[in-house]
Amino acid sequence: MSRTDAGAPEQVSATALTVPDRQRRGLTERLLAVRELSLLIALAALVLVTSVRNDRFLSNQSVKDLLLGCALLVILAVGQTLVIVTRNVDLSVGSILGLVAFATGSLFLAAPGTPWPVALLLGVGLGAMCGVVNGGLIAVARVPALVITLGTLYAFRGVDYYWASGRQINAADMPRSFLRLGNQTLLGVPVLFLVALVVVAAVGFYLRSYRSGRELYAIGSEPAAARLSGIPVGRRVFAVFVANGALAGLAGVLYAARFGTLDAAAGTGLELQVVAAAVVGGVAIFGGSGSAYGAALGAVLLTTIGSSLAVLRIDPFWQQAVVGALILAAIGLDRLLALRTAARLRGRSAHGA
Amino acid sequence: MAHDSLYAAPPRADAEGGAGRLATVRGVLGSWDAVIVVALVVAVLLAGLTVENFATGRNAQFLLLDLVPLALLALPMTLIVVTGEIDLSVASMVGLGSTLMGQLWLSSGLSLELICLLVVLLGAVLGAVNGLFVTGFGLPSLAVTIGTLALYRGLSFVVLGDQAVADFPAGWTAAVVRNIPGTSIPVALVGVLLLALLFGVVLHFTPIGRALYAMGNNDQAATFAGVSVARTKFWLFVVSGAVCGLVGVFWTLRYASARGDNATGLELTVVTAVLLGGVSIFGGRGGLLGVVAGVLLLGVLRNALQLADVDANALTIVTGTLLIVSVVLPNAVADVRARLHRRRQRARPVAP
Amino acid sequence: MSAYRTGLRVGATSLTLAALLLSATACGGTTRENSGNEPGAGSQASGGADPDAAIKEGLKIAFLPKQVNNPYFTVSDNGGKAAVTEFKGEYKEVGPSEASASSQVSYINTLSQQGMDVIVTSANDPNAICGALNQAKAAGAKIVTFDSDTKPECRQIFVNQVTAQGIAENQVKLISQQIGGEGEIAILSATANATNQNAWIALMKEELKKPDYSKIKLVTVAYGNDDDQKSFQETQGLLQSYPNLKGIISPTTVGVAAAARYLSGSQYKGKVKLTGLGTPNQMREFVKDGSVDAFALWNPADLGYLAAYAGAALASGQITGAEGEKFTAGKLGEYTVGKDGVVILGPPTVFDKNNIDQFDF
């Protein structure tokens, strides 16, 4: 994530930007805003319905729980956005999270006096290392990230299993100051959620306003064109995987702080939820469009659905089915919007000519 | 440097020496079938010589029986991946098929023969839903089938809840694990072989098969050649669903237990086997022989490592590594060859 | 491409034909009513037992837990290892990395192929692994189940941690003491399919019908799927949906730890009582900070230890698995085989802040 150009924001390689392109960008951005707005409306409706049925759903404690509950997913979804925007995907995030969480626990077990910021840095570093493995393999093999990260999903998890060999690390093994991170609040807002907010804001700003951030979209919408216009595609994709690994590492450390009980299975199957959150949040799985804010909202929405199903006492068996239906609805909606945009653009250029 | 597409083949036609390089890639991948068959033979020989209890008829039976679901699911998956699509919902369809079979047996009073047929048909319907989303609405199959992976698994828990249905007639449950009289080869394997033959013939010896490869290489070209891409892909997903239904029936009877979590996570193994078998995830390349060899190789390795008391966790690592190696190796080899080739070409004009 | 069209048509026609044929045969088919399923014949003790037989040396004993990455099974398998070392056998632990019945079947086949004398297993599904176990038994292995049983006819001995009845009584009594004998309670279970938990919950419901507990009302059962995050969310859901909730029973080690961690960081700490089945190491923190008063568990190491001795006694011919036979399990003393080949470890231990530091597992 090197800042290659300190220049003006909103700058895609000027050669590629023609007038209709700029128009389309405006329209896409408006559409994205519409997407984020509709997510907010869905979220509000969900909260409203649930709290009508049960007024405790909006109590202080409950809101705190919700914010706490979605923090990890938000961080992971934002990291995944970086990857998906470049027309890649990282399925190994659940395994990276598990590996880092267990590593953090082991660190405290081996060196009980470690101050938590050190643990945090080491965890992020380990996550970034995993990202280097992913990014490096993808660069070497020139095969889809889907395949490579499916492989490292097994491999990282296997390493985690092997290392843990059935051991468990308990809350009592970790320093209080570290565990407090997991449920402490600042002005009533959980620290974990604040961390997530910082991540969302940073990534969101980077994607929108930095040249290299805009280039990620260019890579995702038309890799060949991006290469021809001089964007270092390989380097950018590599960096994106490292960044996503680091964020998964961060989430892993926070997972350890929040749950206190760690074994090798932490975060199993999380990758589906993460991809779902990003997709529901309007990040197009074909790459080239989507925002960190949308992905974060998607994560919040998914977590809230989980909580409200539990609060509404809807048969827990339905929960997974609902998540699946939601993914289908979200990508279907995206497609519809895209078709409509295309139709409008066609209409407009006809008029313009 | 990196590849940059999830769905389309990476543009590798760099202006200079592009054609030559493409041919090398083709050559390497063409021989991948041979490589994987040789690897299989080597693995079997090595395991037979070094692992105690491996080379016995009884072990062969265990090994083959465990592979039936994987082998069946890999067949339609091969065809789907050849066209450049993917179906990640297969294991969930197996699970839903299994619980529906349990629920029907529990409460409908229908005969088991009819139930089995219904489950296969229902699998086809589930596959049709996938197909509709992918071809009808033009959505990426990866995203669609991740969605239905969650949806179908969720529904399979809805169907049976916390129950497990286990009182299937003993005659039926014994029949699926029975051997061909006088051998240690499970009868079920005959069914697998027949289906494999059918899929193999369709893929390699019919116009449909050629059309599938054409689609994997270039959708538009296939359309111009007069193949209905959408319709063909739709039917592939339907077939995949029907095979999943069949596997659901087999799974339920083999383990005499219909549960919501049956076959969880199997989709990853199926994809691994198909890629290991040399099918390109970009579509357009690969063959059924390689896939069958890939399935067997996976099974032999697991079985031999288990017999050698290798930790299950190491098995997880081996699966992941195999997958990565099987995709990295051909490309790396092609790379090295291309580089050597270029160096030789560069060296030649200097020599005289 | 007419050939291609024809191909499709031929395919569709043959599919329809096959369907017709099959449904025709289906008319006289097997239904649930006429399938003639008989309950298993029960464990048949073959040959006589010789109570004085010594335990053989060099017995090959394999532990096959539900999954190898579950800390609970690591502890109990290590108990088994200690026992096997005592009677000079060969111990090994194998198992799948995810708790699925199908991969257990493949491991059972492998073990029987390796000629194990005893297979000690905890079943992920009471039926699914039966066929494989019977094959292994036919190949000469003795089968002991522990923690989670299979159908009785598929094994010789089931070493039960406590009776399901014992667990139900213990848990209901604990929660009743903690909430002062009246109020609403809920149960946070493992997965919806979990055999043990479902049996215990059924019996807890029976137990709650007793006059002593007439003022306690069980409002719901939630499923945390033995997953930290899900258990967290479900606990939170319980507390919100039932404002008058006084107590939660979580009869699963993952669930109780997650619920305790949730309570300790929430406004409900100390107000809503939590009990269940947990390990002392997991729960120490929460007992000390006052989130949890008391919880229970058997000693998992002893469970593995007893299972190993039961297996050795079977393989040495001391017992056959018939009711009334006796055997000695090292430091734990003498045990008697009960009905259906069940051996019971003993009553669960209750842990509270006074005794929790004496335990390390």
**Which oligomeric form is depicted?**
heterotrimer
The radius of gyration over CA of chain C amounts to 24 Å
Tally of individual helices of chain A: 13
Distance between the termini of chain A: 41 Å
Average pLDDT, all residues of chain A: 82
- DSSP E strands of chain A, number: 2
How is this fold's topology laid out?
The complex is a heterotrimer of chains A (353), B (352) and C (361).
Chain A: H1 19-53, H2 60-85, H3 93-110, H4 116-141, H5 145-164, H6 176-183, E1 185-186, E2 189-190, H7 191-209, H8 211-221, H9 223-228, H10 233-259, H11 270-280, H12 292-311, H13 318-352
Antiparallel strand pairs in A: 1-2
Chain B: H1 18-30, H2 32-50, H3 57-82, H4 90-107, H5 112-136, H6 141-160, H7 170-177, H8 187-205, H9 207-217, H10 219-224, H11 229-254, H12 266-276, H13 288-307, H14 312-350
Helix pairs in contact in B: 1-14, 2-13, 3-8, 3-9, 3-11, 3-12, 3-13, 4-5, 4-6, 4-11, 5-6, 5-11, 7-11, 8-9, 12-13, 12-14
Chain C: H1 2-26, E1 60-64, H2 71-86, E2 90-93, H3 101-113, E3 118-121, H4 130-138, E4 142-146, E5 157-160, H5 164-179, E6 183-189, H6 195-208, E7 216-223, H7 228-241, E8 245-250, H8 253-264, E9 273-276, H9 280-288, E10 294-297, H10 300-315, E11 326-328, E12 334-336, E13 342-344, E14 349-352
Parallel strand pairs in C: 1-2, 1-3, 3-4, 4-5, 5-13, 6-7, 6-8, 8-9
Antiparallel strand pairs in C: 10-14, 11-12
Descriptive overview:
The complex is a heterotrimer of chains A (353), B (352) and C (361). With 353 residues, chain A is mostly helical. Chain A has 13 helices and two strands. In chain A, strand 1 and strand 2 form a beta hairpin. In chain A, helix 1 packs antiparallel against helix 13, helix 2 runs parallel beside helix 7 and helix 2 packs across helix 11. The radius of gyration of chain A is 21 Å and the shape is globular. In chain B, helix 4 runs parallel beside helix 6. The two termini of chain B are 35 Å apart. Helix content of chain C is 40%, strand content 18%. A six-stranded parallel β-sheet of chain C has the order 2-1-3-4-5-13, sandwiched between helices. Chain C has a four-stranded parallel β-sheet with strand order 7-6-8-9. Chain C has a two-stranded antiparallel sheet with strand order 10-14. The longest helix of chain C is centred in the N-terminal third of the chain and has 25 residues. The chains are: A mainly alpha (353), B mainly alpha (352), C alpha/beta (361). Chains in contact: A-B, A-C, B-C. Chains A and B meet through helix 4, helix 5, helix 9, helix 10 and helix 11 of A and helix 6, helix 12 and helix 14 of B.
